[in-house]
Predict the 3D structure of the following.
Amino acid sequence: MSEKDTVSQPATVGDKDTRFFGQPWELAHIFGVEMWERFSFYGMQGILLIYMYYSVAEGGLGMDEAVATGIVGAYGGAVYLSTILGAWLADRLFGSERVLFASAIVIMIGHIALAAIPGFWGLGVGLVLVAIGSGGLKANATSVVGTLYTDEDPRRDAGFSLFYLGINLGAFFGPLLTGLLQSTLGFHWGFALAAVGMALGLIQYSFGRKGLPAASRVVPNPLPRSRYPLIIGIAIAAIAVVVVLVLVGVIRADNLAAIVIIATIGATIAYFIVILTSRLVNEVERSRVFGFIPLFIVSVGFWSLYQQQFTVLTIYSDKRMNRDLFGWEMPVAWVQSINPIFIIILSGVFAAIWTKMGTRQPPTPVKFALGAMVMGAAFLLFLPWANGGANTTPLLAVVGILFVFTVAELLISPVGLSVTTKLAPKAFKTQMVALFFLSVALGTAIAGWAAQFYDPENEVPYFTVLGFIAIALGAGLLLAFKPVLALMRGVR
């Protein structure tokens, strides 16, 4: 077979193609679109909050800080809520690959809206499109990567590790470059760069998507055509309800985070009821779902603090942190690039530790408990510099605190995704993963809602209360880990 034929042939599951760092060449295309999506996502998010609360004279919208943080939290929660929609569209209508491609286009249009449409209209249209698109891409990119390998392929874990490296490379460079443009040319140039980044990812992916396995376009559970009118009617009705609620003032900018919290709690309760009452779930599986509930609660608590990187920590970096680097003021957004560096470094370290410990490693409830407690401790580490003057907190102090953030994240985030798939009933594999994402959605929305109580002039109560709440959550799970393990029926 010629080289040309090799390139043009679609990959098949189990191929031994090793052209991309020992992995199938098709991984390069998914790696690229995900890296550029994360570049645009975190690049935009790095300047989003300050864009909303900076004055008009500074290029911002002059919004109240409490309202701005609530919107950021609501937006972040909506991204994870949208993963449910993205997964449903893939499973019932279009297949993962098509939803991924369409989602990337929606994201790019959202960033263009933020860059080109002035004022609040640009903010609203842009954030809605980016949230929906990011949820669709997030829900399906991992699934498409999985179609490149058989379950027995020994390269599978390494391939996913390479894929996640792309995520963190994008998350690292995005805030650096958009922050630099924002601080030198203005906010809309930063948003435009995010759009350009997504466009680059789309161009690369457009050339490579035809070579992806046919399995990436399979619709696992096709929706009968007879039900299309019902689904279309429900979608139109849902949009109409939202529009009416906005027009009558029920949904407002100052209560968006609370609305997302309520919606997420409702979706969570509905999911648990559906799974726990299903006749397709046997006794062992039902017990495991009950065992997942304490992990879900602790996960919500963790993300409620962790996601404040994009709310409270952004304000803190703007007003409290000393950003002077040898006479040059570092852009606020650059703080968002610190965490991805630690993830890249520490994820391999944690993987090596768990591998070396083998069956002696702590069970999942203990890891979750430690993660929550470490996250609480990270908030308490702000206290030595709390209530200080403007720009008095050393940059190294914030770097150290974000190091602790990352340790907590690696005890919960990858572990949570892994245990969710193990605890999931056979008939509800996708729904259980959606439930884990709902814990992230709920925590992110709470992070935006809680930020309204942050007062830069009196920081001690805020950091103390939230820090000890997280530690208490972790300690409670640590004390109850044996009963939780018993409910998990053999899953560790």
